[in-house]
Amino acid sequence: MAKVAKKKPDPKQKALAKIKGLTIGDCTTFLDSIASDRDKAIAEMVELDDNGEFECDNYIVSEGDDNGAYVMGWRWVSFEDTPMSKICSCCHEEPTEKVVKMRDGTTDTLCETCLEDVTCPTEGCGAIEGTEKWGTVGDGFDGYCPSCADKREEAGVYGS
Ligand SMILES: [Zn+2]
Ligand SMILES: [Zn+2]
Predict the structure, then answer these.
(1) 98, 116 Cβ separation under 8 angstroms
(2) Tell me, what's the pLDDT at 160?
(3) What single DSSP character describes residue 119?
């Protein structure tokens, strides 16, 4: 890393660092309380979409020389289809129990029930369908991973 000249610590930042549990909400509440009428009028001009993907509930404005101003707002990001998802990527109903890395590099966020459905039931195996551990030789059978299905076949479990 390039060497960066050490800057003198900003006393305001130092003061903020001393406040335990400081949140962005504390800061916006304070900044709202000192907002000017002009700031409020500007913030009221923000056009919101009606799907809730952009929210603006503060009077925090950054104004320079240009013919307009920036108003602070909140952009929604969905966790869907990311490892951060709080909802099962299979049934889309139950809460995520486990984040599973699939062989193709994607991730599944599975609830307890869906996880059980795709996990090899052999004790101590625990391979999950579609993952590296499941293997690619064969499809498995009866919910068992390919390797466990082969062993069961060899042991005559499936009959002739
Ligand atoms: Zn599920
Ligand atoms: Zn198995």
Answers:
(1) no
(2) 56
(3) B
Q: Tell me the longest C-alpha to C-alpha distance in the chain.
A: 84
The pLDDT tens digits for 122-142 are 999 999 999 999 988 878 899
How many residues are present in the chain?
160
- Centre of ligand 2 to C-alpha 141, Å, is 10
CA 54 to ligand 2 center in whole angstroms: 46
Distance from the alpha carbon of residue 132 to the mean position of ligand 2, in angstroms = 12
Distance 115 CA to ligand 2 centre (A): 14
Give CA 88 to chain center in angstroms: 12
Q: Which ligand has an atom closest to residue 108 CA?
A: 1
pTM for this prediction: 0.68
* pLDDT of amino acid 29: 95
Q: Is residue 36 within 8 Å of 15, Cβ to Cβ?
A: no
In the chain, where are the structural domains located? 20-75, 98-154
Minimum-distance ligand to the CA of 142? 2
Which ligand does the CA of 89 lie closest to? 1
Rounded Cα distance, 136 and 138, in Å: 6
Average pLDDT, the chain: 92
